[in-house]
Structures
1.
Amino acid sequence: MIIVMKTSATPADIEQSVKNVEALGMKANIIQGTERTVIAAVGEERVAGIRSLESGPAVDEVFSILAPYKMASREAKPESTTVRAGSLTVGNGQIGVIAGPCSVENEEQIIATARAVQQAGATALRGGAFKPRTSPYSFQGLKKEGLKLLAKARAETGLAVVTEVVSPSDVPLVAEYAEVLQIGARNMHNYRLLEAVGRCERAVLLKRGPSATIDEWLLAAEYILDGGNPNVMLCERGIRTFEAHTRFTLPLATVPFVQQKTHLPVVVDPSHGTGHTHLVPAMSRAAIAAGADGLIVEVHPEPEKALSDGYQSLTFEQFEDMMGGCQRIAAAMERQLGEWTATQPARTG
Amino acid sequence: MIIVMKTSATPADIEQSVKNVEALGMKANIIQGTERTVIAAVGEERVAGIRSLESGPAVDEVFSILAPYKMASREAKPESTTVRAGSLTVGNGQIGVIAGPCSVENEEQIIATARAVQQAGATALRGGAFKPRTSPYSFQGLKKEGLKLLAKARAETGLAVVTEVVSPSDVPLVAEYAEVLQIGARNMHNYRLLEAVGRCERAVLLKRGPSATIDEWLLAAEYILDGGNPNVMLCERGIRTFEAHTRFTLPLATVPFVQQKTHLPVVVDPSHGTGHTHLVPAMSRAAIAAGADGLIVEVHPEPEKALSDGYQSLTFEQFEDMMGGCQRIAAAMERQLGEWTATQPARTG
Amino acid sequence: MIIVMKTSATPADIEQSVKNVEALGMKANIIQGTERTVIAAVGEERVAGIRSLESGPAVDEVFSILAPYKMASREAKPESTTVRAGSLTVGNGQIGVIAGPCSVENEEQIIATARAVQQAGATALRGGAFKPRTSPYSFQGLKKEGLKLLAKARAETGLAVVTEVVSPSDVPLVAEYAEVLQIGARNMHNYRLLEAVGRCERAVLLKRGPSATIDEWLLAAEYILDGGNPNVMLCERGIRTFEAHTRFTLPLATVPFVQQKTHLPVVVDPSHGTGHTHLVPAMSRAAIAAGADGLIVEVHPEPEKALSDGYQSLTFEQFEDMMGGCQRIAAAMERQLGEWTATQPARTG
Amino acid sequence: MIIVMKTSATPADIEQSVKNVEALGMKANIIQGTERTVIAAVGEERVAGIRSLESGPAVDEVFSILAPYKMASREAKPESTTVRAGSLTVGNGQIGVIAGPCSVENEEQIIATARAVQQAGATALRGGAFKPRTSPYSFQGLKKEGLKLLAKARAETGLAVVTEVVSPSDVPLVAEYAEVLQIGARNMHNYRLLEAVGRCERAVLLKRGPSATIDEWLLAAEYILDGGNPNVMLCERGIRTFEAHTRFTLPLATVPFVQQKTHLPVVVDPSHGTGHTHLVPAMSRAAIAAGADGLIVEVHPEPEKALSDGYQSLTFEQFEDMMGGCQRIAAAMERQLGEWTATQPARTG
C-alpha cells in the first residue's frame, strides 16, 4: 500500500498514518519526497479495514500494490486452468463453443437448436430456464420445465448444458440438470449466489458485470474458488459505455490482460457484447484472434419469433457460417475450435 | 414503437415487419419518407417479445415511444408519493435524513452514532448488518447480531432503522427488525430479491445500480410495486464513468428528471456518490438544491477505525456541520430538512 | 513516482529501473515488499520522458505522486483567484452569471437578450459568433458580423462579452471585441489555441472536454497560465457517460474537488451539462449549493426558433425565475449572485 | 424525424409542432397512439435549426431517422473506397500497415525504424513532428526539422509518410512532406483543421475522438469530403470508459458497424487503443479478424528511452513477431497484409 500524504501534512499526521499502518500488521517505510511524504506499507493488503488508511488526517491518496484476489491470481497458480464439464473443454488451446437460444421456449425449439449447433461444431448447449428480466412484463422463463427440456436435449445430442442460476435456493435444482451453472452479468455482485455455487460441484461460467472492474470480477471468482469450487470460467460480455450503437461495448483487450492476471480461462459472449446479429460473426473471429478460450453465442431457429433477445440471435445457417470463419482463425492461432472436423464445410463468416 | 426500415427494404420486407407488428396486437402505420420507410406501431408496447421487432429482415432501428414501466410512472399516479416509515418521512416537501455507519460494528458504536445523528436532525438510522462486499476477505457484517443492535438503537432513540437485505431468504428476518429494507446498488438487478421485498410490508429504499439506465431503475421499482408494495423510495448513489477522482459520479440531474417521470420520492447518497468525506457536505447541499426528497449519509464515531467505508464517512461533528449547511439550503427551497429545529445551531457546512 | 515491479522481476530488472529513474535526475528508493519490489522515485516528475519508466523490463505499474500541473495548483498559489473582466467578477464569493444565446443571430435578438439577462441579474453576455458545429450542414455563426453585434449589445448594456474563439488566427480579432475568450469543450485539447490565448490579455473561460480528466483539464489551464495569462476561469459543462437522458452528465462533485486542487475559479454550464431546458434551473441551484463561482446559461427570446441549441435555452421569463431560485441559494451560501439587487422580485425557480 | 409528444399535449401543442415541422420544409404525419401522439416529419433532416423541433411546447423526445452525414454514407457511394498514398494502399482487401515511432526524435532513430518496419512488412511510416501534448512540460516535437527527417526516411525506404497536423496554418507545410495527414483524436472536433485538410490534396487519416459518437466521427469525415478531398481513412483508436487497466477501451465492433454505414476504410490503432505494449499484438490480430482495413502501430528502437509513448511502443523484434501473427490471421481472412511476402519468417505473435 502506498499512502501519499498531503503537502500540508505535519509530522504528527505522518506519525498517525504510520500508526494506522502498523495497527494493520504492516511495516511502514517513510519516503521523504521533494514536495510530499509517501508511506510505503509493506505486508498483507488483503485484510479487513485496509481502506481505512485513506481516512488518516492528511492522507491525499492511497494506491494498492497487491492484487486484491489470491486464489484467482496467476501467481498462486502459474499454469492455465482447463475446465471440463461433460462435452465441454475450455482452456489450454481448446476453444469451447457454447451455443443455443437465450430462453428455452419449447421442446421443438431446444432440440432442433441443440442438433443444429452440434452439427456446426458447438460443444455445449446454452438455454435460459430462469431468466432475470429487466421488466416484470417480459417472459420470465420456463423454470423447472425448461431445465427438463435442456436435459432432454442433452440426452439427444450429448451436449453439456449451460444454464443460468439466479438465486442461491435454486442452485441444487439447477445443478441437478446442468453441467455448467451460469452466473449472469447482473448477478456478478450477488455474493450469496457466488457462495452457493462455490459450494457446488458443477463448473461455473461467471459473466462480468457491465460496470465491473477487472479486480471486482476476479474477486467474484475468488468467492467461488474460496468456496471450494475450482472450475470457474470467466466470461467477458461487454461493458456499459457511452457507445449507443451497440448494446454494450465489447472490450477484447480484456482477454489478453486477464489471461496474464489469472489462470482461469476467458470466454467471450459476442451476442450480448454487441446486441446485433450482424456484428456477432466479426466479433467472434476477433475474440479468437485475441486469444479467447471460448465463445458463448445465441442461436435460435427463428430469431424474429424469439421470446427474448431475437435481435442478437443467429439463425442456424448464420451460426454455421460464423463457425466456418472462426475455424479459419482458430487454425491460424493453432488452436482447436469446438468439435470442428474436416467434415464441416470451411465457409468464411 | 417506431420501426425504421433500411433504405434497401423491399415491399416484401415492409410487409413482413407489418405482420410482425400485428402479431403482437399492435396497429401498423406506414410512413413513406424521402429516403426510408418508417412503421409506427400503435398499441401496448409492454408485452413479451416486443424487441423481436428488431429482427425483421430489413429493420435498421427500433425506438420505443412508451415508458417500459407503468405503475411507477407519473402518468399512472400524478401526485407525488410520500413514504412514511416510523420516524422517517420522505416526499412532498419533507426531506428525510438517514444517517449512520456503513456497518454495525458493536453496541457502543451504533448507539453513540444513533444519538449523535438524531441530535443533528437525522430522522432515521442506517447501518449494515448483512454486507455485500466486493472481496471475500472484507468484513461481512454482524448479520442477525447487527440487526439486534439496530433494534436496540431504535429503542434508545426512536429512530427508524434502514438496513440492507441481500437475499430473498433473509427478507422476513430483516423485516422483523427494520422499518426500511434497503436494496443495494449491486442488487438492483436481483429480481428475486425485488419480488421478495415487493411481497413485504416494509418500505423499500431502492438504490440505482452503478450502470443502470433510468428505465432499468424504474423497472426495478416496478417489480416491487407490482408485488403489492407501494412504499418505494428511489436512491441515486452514483454511476460508473471514466472519472477516477471520485468513487462514482453523482449525476444530480437525475433528481429533477426522475421526479418528472415517476411519483416516487428520490433520495441521494452523497457518501457512495463521491467516496470522499470532504466532498459529502457540498454534494448534500447540491442534492437538496436540485430538489432531492432525502439524503442517506455515512457517519461513524471514528472513521479511521471503521471496518468499512471509513474514507467516505463523516465524524459526528462533520455531520452536524453538514446538516447546518443543508438546513440553510432547505430553507431557501421552502422545505423541511429532517427534524431540524431552531434549537440546533445554524452552522454553515 | 512509484514503480511497482512484477513479481517475476530479477535483481537485474530492478537495477535497470533504478538506472532509468536516475537518468531522469530522480533518486530511487527501493522498498522490498512481501510479494513485490517497489521503487519510489523522488524528484521532479514534470519532465519529458517520465512515462518511459513504464517501459522497464519487469515494470507492472507506475503511479504519479505529484500533480502534473504547477502554476494552476493551489500549492503554487494558496489564495483563490478572482477573475475580473469588465462587468464580470468571478471568485472569492462573487458568483458571476454569464447568460445569452448559443449563437448571435441578428441585432434584435442579441440586444433584446442582453437587456433581459441584465435585468434579471446577469453580469456578462454570452453569444457565439464563431461556432464549432458537429455537422457541416449546421449554422456556422455570423463570424465578424456577430462580434460587432455583441459589441453593440455591450454598448447598450455595459455587459462584458464572452464569446468563443476556435482558431489561433482568430484570437486577435475576437480579443478586439470580447472581454472573455471562451475555449469550447471540443477545443480544450487544441494546444495551439491554448498557447494563443495564453499570449493574449483577455480573460479566458476554459471549458472541460467531455472526456477530459481533471488532470488533463488543469494541464490545459497550465498552457494558458504558462503563456503569461493569469485570468483563467474553468468551466465544468458535463462529461460523456452511458446516461442518455441528458445530453451530457454534469458531475458537480468536480466543483469542490477542483477548488481544492487549484486556485482558479470554477464556473458551471447547466445548459450543455443537461441539454434540456427543464433541467437547467435545478442544476443551476445545485451548482451554487456545491460552491460554484459562476454560471453560464443559454437564454433566447424564442428557443423554438433558435438556430442552435434551442432545446436547452431558457426564455427570458424562465431565466428570471431561475435567477430567483438561485439567488435564494446564493444567500443561503452567503454569496453574491451576479448583480442581484433587492429590486428584483424574489421568485422561486 | 419522429417527434414524440407528451401525454399532456393539447391539440394546440400538436398544431404548433406541426407548424414547426412545416417551417423547416418537411411534411408532418400525425399518428394518434393509445397514450401519446407522435408526429413523423418527412423530408430532409440535414438542415440548420432541425433540433429546434425539440423545443416545441409539449415535445417529449425527438428521434432522427436519417444519418446526419451524406457524402460519407454507403448509401451515397455503395462501393468501398480504396485510399492510395504512395506506398500505402488501404481498403478492398488490402490491409495497410503504418508503423513507426510516436515522435521523430533524431535521424538515426527514424531511419532505423523505417528500415525495420519496412522489412517486417509495413507499407507506411508514422512519426510525429508536431505533437499535441497534454502537458506543456512534455516533449513537443521537432516540428519542421522532424518533417525533414521523415522525408529522408522516405528517400531511404520508399515508405509513404503519415504524420500529424495540428493547426490549419501548418497544413501546407506538412502536406509538402507527407503523403498522409493525420488528424489526431484530440483534433477530431477541430473543424477549421478539418476544413483545411479538406481543401488539401493529401490523403487524411482521421482518428476518432475518445468520446465521439459514430455520427460525430462520420460528420468530421463529412467536413473533409465536403471540402473536396475524397481520400479519407477513418481510424478507431479507443474510447474513454471506466476501464482503467487500459489507457483507452478499443471497441472493435466499431469496425464492422462503421463499414456498413460508410464506404470509407477503417484503420485500427492498437497502440493508443490499449496503451500497453504487451496488449498490442493480440489486439492487432483481433482488429484484422474483425475486418479492419489497416493498422497503425507504434514502434521504437528503444521504447525505454522514447521521448513519448514508450510504454505502448513495440521493439523491432516485437513488431516483426506481431506481423507474423497478423499475417496468419490476414491469410485466414483472405486478405493481403501490408507488403508481407514469403521471404518473411512466419512467426506467431
2.
Amino acid sequence: MKHPLANPALEQLFLNARTYSGFTDQPVEDATLTALYDLLKWGPTSANASPARFVFVKSAAAKAKLEPALSEGNRAKTLKAPVTVIVAHDLAFYDQLPTLFPHSDARSWFAGNEALIQTTAFRNGTLQGAYLMLAARALGLDCGPMSGFDNAKVDAAFFAGTTVKSNFLINLGYGAEDGVYARNPRLPFDAACRIE
Amino acid sequence: MKHPLANPALEQLFLNARTYSGFTDQPVEDATLTALYDLLKWGPTSANASPARFVFVKSAAAKAKLEPALSEGNRAKTLKAPVTVIVAHDLAFYDQLPTLFPHSDARSWFAGNEALIQTTAFRNGTLQGAYLMLAARALGLDCGPMSGFDNAKVDAAFFAGTTVKSNFLINLGYGAEDGVYARNPRLPFDAACRIE
C-alpha cells in the first residue's frame, strides 16, 4: 500500500515549483544528467516505445549552434542557462520495439502507418519531456520549458540526416529566485474537469 | 536550495512505479480527484494555456458510454478500473488566455492559426496528462495509460457539440500487484541521449 508523499515533496514537485528564466552559476554535472535520464526513462509510454531523444546542450559551441533557432524573447536566458535540453523524438522509434516490447510484434503495428507513427512519437515523446521536468524537480533542479523557437532550424543543426525531430526545449539548472514572475492563475476544477 | 527527494519518493514516482491493468476494490473518492487536479494544474504549459480537459469516468452509466470506443485488449480492464480518465484538450483553449496569461495579449497569438492551435493543444494537453500520472503516483494512486481506443467515438459520446477532443485514457485506482507484468527494458543513456 502506497501513501501520499509528504507535503515538502508535493511542494517541490508541483505546489511551489515554478518556471525559471534565470539560474545560478552552479553547473549541472554530466552525472546529474545521467541520473536524470535514469529516473525519467521509467515513465510509461505506449508499448514501451520510448520515442524521446534528448540532446543536453551544454558547451559554448553547442549553445552557438542552437542560438539562431531561438526566438528573440528566449535567446538571452537560454544562452545563459547551464543546460538546454532539446526534447526530440525519433520517427523510427518502432525499430527499437523488438528490444523494448519483446513479447509482441509491435514493430508491425507502426511500420508503414505514417499517421500513427507521427501521433505516437509526438504524444509519447511529449510525455517523456514532462517526465524529464518532474524528474528534474525531484532531483532538486529547476526547469524553464519553451516552445518559442524554430523547429526546422534545430533539426537542421542537430539532427540532419536522421529521423529525429525536435519537439520543445527545457532550460535546466538551479533556479535564481529573483527572476521569477508572480504566479498566474489556473482554471478551477469545474472549468477543466468533470466527474461522470 | 532544493535537495533531491529521498529514495522512497523517487521509487514511488519512477523507479518502482509500474503500469497497472488491475486495481483493488478500493474506490477513488471524488475528493481524491479534486486533490489530484489541485496538484497537476500547477505543472507548466506554454503561456500557461492549460488546454487539458479531464473527464473522470466513474459511474456505471459513464463506463457504458465509454465501452464501445475501447479496443478489445483494453475493454475488460477499463470497465473494471475504479476510474478511467479521458485526457482531452480544448481547441478553444486560447479563449481563456486573457484570464490565464493576463499580462500579454496571448489570445491573438493563436486565434486563426489552426496549425499552432492544434500543436499547442496536443503538446501541452499531453504534458498535463503526464503531470496527472505523476501527481497520481505522488498521492499513492496507480495508473494504467492507454492510447488503444477510438478517439472519434469518445469525442462523439463525451464531447459532442464542443471544441474538446480526446487524447488518451488513464485507468486510475490502487494497483493490484498480482497483475503486473515483468518490466520491459529501457534504452540506455547513449541510445536516447547525448551531451554536447
